[in-house]
User: Fold Glucose-6-phosphate isomerase from Planococcus massiliensis.
Amino acid sequence: GTISLNDKYIQSFVEKDELTALQDFVESAHKKIHEGTGAGADYLGWLNWPSTMDDAEVSRIEETALKLSKDVDVLIVIGIGGSYLGAKAVQDLLSPAFGRTGLEVVYAGQHISGRYLEELLAYIEGKKVAVNVISKSGTTTEPAIAFRKLKAWMYEAYGEQEAASRIIVTTDESAGALRKTADEAGYVSFVIPGDIGGRYSVLTPVGLLPLAAAGVDIRQLLSGAKQAEADLISTNLEENAAYAYAAYRQVLNARGYSTEVMASFEPAMAGMNEWWKQLFGESEGKQGKGIFPASVIYSTDLHSLGQYLQNGRRMLFETMVSFTEDQQQSQIPFDEEDGDGLNYLVDKTLHEVNQQALNATAMAHHDGGVPILQLEIPKLDAHHTGYLLYFFMKACAMSAYLSGVNPFDQPGVEQYKQNMFQLLGKPGYEK
Ligand code: PA5
Assistant:
């Protein structure tokens, strides 16, 4: 099965002609993506990655994860931005909410909170720990600080030799401080391909190793992405849902709908929302342009931001993601007294009720002036998750090229760093 784009609640806002008017621009952006003729063409490695990834590398990741599952209680994944959001997203989506079995995967280096790191150090006391430090540049401050602290803890707890055997590095093949450290200390290491940028790297060892360790079937994840790679190849907007999604976004943006709210009725999607926000926000927000990516989890947020969505400023459009198959068949039980008046629901499952909540919300927000795109996914599993990841990456590249920006750079993230280094007196940055 594949992801389909339901545009029922968009039709009263956008004429079909407006979309087809973009067809030529889509053709030309498609060329940029597939022939590498656009800005940022050095970072197109993700495009054919699912169909070309070395099988031996997948096996090496699985073997490393298997070894970790035997030797380790807690795997600490250190990284920020594209170096952690993908793994966190997929882990949150596919792992059970309660009582996860096996190895615990936790994250560090995604901020500079001393409280968090000290609590983590207290938590791992007496546990068997390994670290997977992930940084493409190998020089990012946040993960470097976390790694320095955890490395010191590990060397103290295990001694040099054993600590070194519990550290896995994922970084560039040759460049950066982390590669040098890894080679010198003899850490096990994995390579982030040079032509794949952080936010497009979830299907490389960046995401795959933490996910395999967390018990995710990474071959299924890759197979879904591979199917998406094959499916999302047409330039015809009728046939390519990722391109149609991208084109609708740009039509809406041109009309002043400058904020996109990713909405899901599945709370396990919260991490995926964060990954998606980074992918689109960092790819498109430049040159004074871009759709601001926001997210909600319903029905939780219908009791919070729902009011704004219904009646607030009308610069919003919504993208609702739903999983169509009822995988739990969770029934609402009959109650003799019916004090809560819910007996009218006894022949329904929670999935059906949730689905009607989605339909009701889509109707209401549409009537309140919010254009709504619906992405319908047949099933919530590793295969379809891989498909979804690739779908968004392809849509993002298309959307960014349609709006005339480089989908693969992030010049703006440097500015705060320069200021911070200057304020902290980093050698070479003093003024
Ligand atoms: O998408 C990106 O390129 C960024 O978000 C990076 O992933 C992030 O800044 C982390 O960079 P690095 O992996 O070099 O530490």
